[in-house]
Amino acid sequence: MGEENAEPVTYEKEELETMTVEQLKTIAKEKNITGYSSMNKADLITAILAP
Question: Which residues lie below 8 Å from residue 39, measured CB to CB, with a gap of 6+?
Fold first, then answer.
């Protein structure tokens, strides 16, 4: 029941840069980022870090 109010997961740029594109796409999907499937690694990182 407490899951709905869980704090959103935050990532550091350095942490994201060590991940694969597939891992970044999974995070982007979870954050409901549109167009993530056609993004490259740099764009994915930027989108994930955006507020």
Answer: 25, 28, 47
